[in-house]
Amino acid sequence: MYTWYAMGHLIPFLHLSNKLAKRGHKISFIIPKRTQTKLQHLNLHPHLITFVPIALPHVDGLPHEAETTSDAPKDTLEEKWSSWLGGFKEGSVIYCALGTECLLNQNQLQELLLGLELTEALVSKCQLVLLPGPYTDHVINARKMSIKLKVGVEVEKGEEDGFFTKESVSKAVRIVMDDGNELGREVRANHTKVRNMFQSNNFESSCVDSFCHELQNLL
Fold first, then answer.
1. What is the reported pTM?
2. How many angstroms separate the most distant Cα atoms in the chain?
3. Terminus-to-terminus CA distance in the chain, angstroms?
4. What are the helix (H) ranges across the chain?
5. From first to last of its 219 residues, what are the pLDDT tens digits of the chain?
6. Considering only CA atoms, which of 169, 67, 160 is closest in space to residue 110?
């Protein structure tokens, strides 16, 4: 296993490694050497999962011996955000997850904020508005969720420049949050179905079994 060096990536990959090891597979898990102690207790099959420690070079601007994003300096900003969010009603906050290394230029950031400002009066449960970055996996995931699964709405972008506008952001948010919108009702219904499927008892196990089967086919 070789993943992005952030705890939000390392831990899920280690959980998957445990599932594979439970089925008899051996896994080499590449990990920064000082981070190994933080995850050692999550390795449920140490006779099958071998941590392969590697040393990382120092990066200017980060503390010495920093290995993952959790080692980056923190201040009181997180506490301030938590306190601020606590003042809103449940389901009334729109959370923008732009993904790892997704950088917006000043104009696109302004369009995003203005688009959300146009929709701030709407209140609903957590729904998916998809705004993929330029990376291939972002686009593929957005297409699957918006077109194939129909569990979210993708923000429209210009065909020539690939930029979105405040109007396109507002339109996508309104679709998923407006109870009177037909497409929104379909998306919310599909979202509920898929969420229930993911939470079913045998779903995860069947996915891992299928993955193992595909691995066997590669031999």
1. 0.65
2. 56
3. 18
4. 7-22, 36-39, 77-85, 106-117, 136-143, 166-177, 182-198, 203-218
5. 898 888 888 999 999 999 999 999 999 999 998 899 999 999 999 999 999 999 888 888 888 888 887 787 766 667 777 788 888 877 667 767 666 566 778 888 788 877 877 666 443 457 888 888 776 777 888 888 899 989 889 999 888 888 889 999 899 988 988 888 999 899 989 988 888 888 888 888 999 999 999 988 988
6. 169
At 152, the amino acid letter reads: G
Query: Nearest CA to 184 among 152, 145, 142?
Result: 152
CA 216 to the chain's CA centroid: 28
Pairwise CA distance, residues 36 & 172, whole Å: 42
Sequence-distant (≥ 6) Cβ neighbours of residue 171 within 8 angstroms: 155, 156
Residues pairing with 29 in the sheet: 51
